[in-house]
Structures are given as C-alpha cells and as structure tokens.
Amino acid sequence: MQAYKAIVILIISLFSFSSNSYAVYLYNIDDEGSSVESLKILLGEPTTQELVVAKLNIYQLNNEIKKLEIPINTNLVVSSELISFETTDAQAAVWQGRIVKVNKGGYIDNVFQNSVDSFVTLIRADNRLTGMISIRGKIYTIKPLDEYRVAIITLDSSKFPDEGEPINVPDTETSPVAPPTDLAQTPFNPNATSEINILMITTPEAFNQIGEANYRGFISMAAKTLQQNALNTNLRIRYTVSDIVTNIAERGRNQHQLLAAMQTPNNELGQFAAYQRNRARADLVQLVVAYNGVCGLGNHLDGSLHHFRYWGFSTVWHRCVDNFTHVHEFGHNYGAMHDRNTEQNRFFPWGFGFRDTAVVPGFSTVMTSCNGCSRINMFSSPLLAPNGRPMGTTMEDNRRVVDQTRHNAALVFPKDPGGPVDPEYPVDPGYPTGNYDHVFPSGLSTYRAGTRVLQPRNNLIYECRPFPNEGFCRQWSPASPQFEPGFGASWPQAWILR
Ligand SMILES: [Zn+2]
C-alpha cells in the first residue's frame, strides 16, 4: 500500500512537469522514514489526524522557486505561488506563498480569495524544513524528521486543549519584575509602526521535546505566524523575536505556577526572566513549556505602560503554536478577551473574539474557538472581511483593542529613545465618523461615481470620482492594486479623499 502511494505521487509529478514547466514538487511521499524516533512522538499526538512521510526534492529555499506543488497525501495536492522570500536574523529562510489551486482527487478548487486563511509558509533552518499550510483555515503542518525527510500532518485542531483562563493581575502599584523605569520614551504617533520586541524563553523540557535540530525552525515559525497575524489584521506592528533556552527546569509545575514564578524576583525563574528581558530589551516575554494541561496562559492587561512593564508575561505549550496560541496569549497582554457570551472584558467592552458558525465549516478569530471551526490567525474586526464576511462586530473588535494598546507595549523598551512623552493610558484611534457605503474592497463591482468606501488599512473614507474616471474604482485585485484608495500608485485618478 505504501509503495503504491509513492508511485501515484511520482506520476502526478511527471504530469505536472509536462503541463507546467515552472512548478517544482517540494517532496515525494515515501514511507522509508517510518523508523525515525521523532515520528513515533508525532504519531502519538492526539492532534495528528493523518501523517504521511515524504522525501524532500529540494534542499534550499530561495526566491528562484516561484511555484511549488505540495502533496498533503496521495489524494490532495496544493499548488502555491511565491509571495515573499526572506532570510531572517536567526539564519532561517522563509518562503511564503499563496494558494492558487488545490487538487483533491481530481476535483480542482482554484478560487482562493486571500492569504489570511489560505497560505503556505515554509522555513528552512539548521538544514531542516518546517512548514505550515492552511487551506481556508484547515491546518496542515510539515515537521522535519531529518535533513532529507519530513512528516506532513493533517491536524485535528479540535484535539488541542483549551487555552487557560487569562490571569487578572493585582491592582498594585509595584510588581515583582519590571525593567528599569528611567528609560527615555518616544512620543506617540498613531500612524507610526510599533516596534515590539518579544522574548521567548524555552524550558529544558520543551527544548528536549522540540528537539535541538528542529528548534530554530520552531522559533522561526512562531515569529513568522506572529508577524502574519499583524499583517492579517492590518495592525502596524513590527515584531522582533529573540529566544533563549533556560536550564531552569519546569519540574512538574503547571503553567499557573510557572507564570507566577516568572514574575517573582526571589525565584530563580523570575531572576532569569528579568535579566534576560533587560538584555533582550523585550517588551513582552513568553515562556515555552512542555506541560500540556492547557495550551497557554496569559495576563489580561489594561493597556497601560505600567501593566505592560510589570505584567507582560505569558506561557505557551510548544505544540499549540500550530494553533496560534502564542498569538492568543499576547492578545490577552494587549487587553483582548475570548467570547462575549461567556466572558467579561474588564478594560475594553468591545474587546472580544469573533466566531462565524453560519457557514460550513465555521471559523473563529484567534482569541476564541468553536467546535469544528477553523481558527483564523487574525484579531476580530468588523472592518475586515478577507472572505467577504466581516470578521467581527462593534463589540467583537479585538483589533481595536490591540491598536489602542500596541504603542504602550512598544514603550516598555522603546526602539528609538529620545522623546519626552509617556502615554500612560491607551489611546483609542477611533473610527471614522463619516458615512460610507462599503468597506473596501467588498462590493467592488458595484462601485459607481459617488460611492464612498472605508479603507480599513488607514480608517479613511474615499469617494469614487465621476465619469470618465469612475471605471477605475472597480479595477482592483491583490495583483493589480494601482487604484486602491490611498495606497495604489494611481489612486488619486479614481478616488477623492473625504
Ligand atoms: Zn485565552
């Protein structure tokens, strides 16, 4: 049966080369790696719905690879095109692609509207390949077995444990662990990009489970998906992620105990965290753990610089990075909360996650989840509709919370010291008060002279120019955005800023 699978894939591969000379097959499905020790661990995970072993065809990722054919199993092949290629500070090569076609047993699906829920991320680090493929929110991961082989895993996201209830921090003036307070501050500019430094501290238990050879790929994937969340949510945040492995063992402590220890100065984990945070100039700190009782835990903060400085901590079980739990816990630090039906948000009444179960399969944003739903790596927002359906409501608007508080998070260790202003309280960028007909680009084909659209990338309103220019207003696609209001090279030909 396994040999048969390998033959089938090779035939598809040859056909693909003849019909499209640019497409490269990333790997061939092959079961010869089944004796690898790490495979047994992956097979034993409850989240592993299906696992296929494959032998790599390409060993280097670069920007010469424009198209990739990526088999998930013998019945499912993903066609992806390069969006961006970068080499990170941590010596990882990141190939980011959009999905253009999925071939499922001969049935071709090629209507993919966005790269928010449908994307391919491949990372080459320490000569190993790590990857994540999302097809409309359904997640498949690529885990390295050795330098030549990978496991392709169909994830059952419903088998991840829940995240723990976020922690309410005490209303005290001082906190056990905080960086020095005499740092210079930068003036707040709502249009500026927030430079947020993240430190991930990995426990020795988690490090052993991830595996030394796979660790660089793991951290790179965590960093990439965190940055992707900001892009998906149109948030002006640039993350810099650094990491360190500690030799302070978990010794069976649960995540509550580890989180408490991390922010207590007379504790060795607290001393380590405080020292490393200052050294890395990290605004937020997350502990990567092996304990699997919950997916993660984070402090729920009020968005003030004071809170970020004293309580900007969270934990994540390394396995749950595949379910964006690391992003979820940073979300609590920013002030975001879960589901408005079951929870309260003490600080931001509009700060809840969003779920849409009116479609099949349903989906949720990163701060919540629902049975059988795909979790999309973005914060809720009524202004964003990557699939044509709004990803939030007035009260389910965690994007607004993060946009209010991100500048204070960035000020724990300012990137560019010098200015005198210290905005202690979050600043609400607000929403435009003018009327508009559509949130760009929804309803694109109906735009006429006088149509007003809200551009969610800058919260400004634009009005379509009269004839003979109105036709430009309807001309937009991700590949040809020249008339995109406020951003396309030729937008003033089509639009008037209101
Ligand atoms: Zn949570």
Describe this protein with a few key phrases:
498 residues; globular; binds zinc ion
Overall description:
The chain has helices at 2-19, 37-44, 204-210, 212-232, 255-262, 268-280, 305-311, 325-334, 398-410, 470-473, 491-494, and strands at residues 24-25, 27-29, 48-56, 67-73, 76-87, 93-104, 107-109, 119-125, 128-135, 138-144, 149-155, 167-168, 194-202, 237-245, 284-289, 296-300, 313-317, 355-356, 363-364, 374-375, 438-439, 452-455, 460-464, 495-497. Helix 5 (255-262) packs across helix 6 (268-280). The chain is globular. Strands 1, 2, 3, 4, 5, 6, 7, 8, 9, 10 and 11 form an eleven-stranded mixed sheet that branches. It has 498 residues and is α/β, with parallel strands linked by helices. The model is unreliable at 1-21 and 417-423 (pLDDT under 50). The structure holds zinc ion (ZN). Zinc ion is lined by residues 163, 166, 328, 332, 338.
N-to-C CA distance: 64 Å
Radius of gyration: 23 Å
Q: Which small compounds were modeled alongside the protein?
A: zinc ion
Structural class: alpha/beta
Strand fraction: 25-35%
Mean pLDDT equals 85
Number of DSSP-assigned strands: 24
Give me the secondary-structure topology.
Layout: H1 2-19, E1 24-25, E2 27-29, H2 37-44, E3 48-56, E4 67-73, E5 76-87, E6 93-104, E7 107-109, E8 119-125, E9 128-135, E10 138-144, E11 149-155, E12 167-168, E13 194-202, H3 204-210, H4 212-232, E14 237-245, H5 255-262, H6 268-280, E15 284-289, E16 296-300, H7 305-311, E17 313-317, H8 325-334, E18 355-356, E19 363-364, E20 374-375, H9 398-410, E21 438-439, E22 452-455, E23 460-464, H10 470-473, H11 491-494, E24 495-497
Parallel strand pairs: 1-4, 12-16, 13-14, 13-15, 15-17, 19-20, 21-22
Antiparallel strand pairs: 2-3, 3-11, 4-5, 5-6, 6-7, 6-8, 8-9, 9-10, 10-11, 16-17, 18-19, 22-23, 23-24
This protein binds zinc ion.
Zinc ion binds next to α8.
